Amino acid sequence: MQQRRGSMSSPEIASLSWGHMKVKGCSSSYKDCKVWPGGSRAWDWRETGTDHYPGVQPADVEEVLKKGIDLLVIGRGMSEALQVPSSTVDFVKQKGVDVRVLQTEKAVAEYNKLAGQGAKVGGVFHSTC
Q1: Structurally, how many domains does the chain consist of?
Q2: Dihedral sign (CA 41, 16, 28, 5)
Q3: Localized where (predicted)?
Q4: Closest C-alpha among 56, 75, 59 to residue 124
Q5: What's the whole-model pTM score?
Q6: Ordered DSSP codes for 64-129
């Protein structure tokens, strides 16, 4: 569910629990989600054939990078089972975007802090292991 807002600020993540994420201003609940200035949607691993290992692929983050962000936060799951290969980190950096890879609760806190400061921040978050 995408939303367009005049300010195009990064939407706050309203809640996070095992298997559930809610983004402010969006009625649906996500298991894994992608967020960017002005919108969010479910992160469906089947679209790119992603799995915990080898982990997050450039194809998983490319959509968010195209939204004009300066920083990408990647949430690796509650117990950090989701891998983030250096090739994906390099791919993000080559686009001129900073990247932070964190355990999901820490990632959401970091993302919300930055979004609250008005940063052009995007994120991809895994809400289970």
Answers
A1: 1
A2: negative
A3: Cytoplasm
A4: 75
A5: 0.93
A6: HHTT--SEEEEE--TT--S---HHHHHHHHHTT-EEEEE-HHHHHHHHHHHHHTT--EEEEEE---
